[in-house]
Amino acid sequence: MAPRNFETKESSGPTGPTSPTGKATVSKNALVHGLSGRTHACLPGEEGPYEQFCREIVQALAPAGIIEQSVAEDIADDRWRRKRAVAMENALCSRIAQEQPDPAVPLAAALADAFLDASKGLRTVALYAHRLQRAIEKNTAYLEALQAKRKASHAQAQEEAILLTQLAEANGETYNPEPDFPSTGTAGEFVYSASEIARLIARASRLGDAKILFANAA
């Protein structure tokens, strides 16, 4: 899976620096921390771990079709960015602790001061981590909704295929699925397979026999 570059939606008004110098600074910051959706999720030197991480995330999400695949890749990229944000936040906290000049000052107070000091970077990293988590949750919910719809459509198409196949067999005919189930698999990615339908029918028949047998035994 190749590193991807995210496009951002246009805003209805200014949301950041408007001067050329300010814009250049913000752009440089994004490239430095690599947390913004405006930059590649993968920074130089991260290619191997990034590829493996995203591949495993996408496989675990089990997308089907180009839309689900795209959403799954978005989730994987954002999870990689959030993983980086957490590592950066931990590194910043460790640095602040090491640079704490007064041992009498509680570490929590030093971290709070650093959070309020924009130059320390802690607040920026925390903000990006929060935004990434929200994006992950939103896209995960969207993917789950897409998958639920697809699976319901697939289950309905499969049930109809079984019934139509059984009807054809009862009439001494060979069922032709092409008019009802095109090979494109548009019904929840369902693609008619005579061998698979035969297996499902046989399994249902065995289950029915088993239920009758054990019901009588009870």
Number of strands: 0
- Spatial gap, N to C terminus: 56 Å
| Biggest β-sheet strands, sense, barrel | none
Structural class: mainly alpha
**Spatial extent as radius of gyration:** 27 Å
Order of helices and strands: HHHHHH
What's the pLDDT, averaged over the residues? 78
**Count the helices. How many?**
6
Quick one: overall form? elongated
Q: What's the domain count? A: 2
Provide the β-strand percentage band. under 5%
* Residue runs with pLDDT of under 50 for 5 or more positions: 5-16, 21-33
Percent of residues in helices: 55-70%
Topology:
Blueprint: H1 20-33, H2 47-61, H3 65-99, H4 107-116, H5 122-170, H6 194-217
Structure, explained:
This protein has 2 domains: 20-150; 153-217, no CATH class. The longest helix has 49 residues, at 122-170. Mean pLDDT is 78; it is low at 5-16 and 21-33. The radius of gyration is 27 Å and the shape is elongated. The chain contains 6 helices and no strands. The chain has helices at 20-33, 47-61, 65-99, 107-116, 122-170, 194-217. By secondary structure, the chain is an all-alpha fold.
Task: Tell me briefly what this model is.
By secondary structure, this protein is mainly α. The chain has 6 helices and no strands.
Offer a few descriptive terms:
about 220 residues, 2 domains, mainly alpha, elongated, single chain
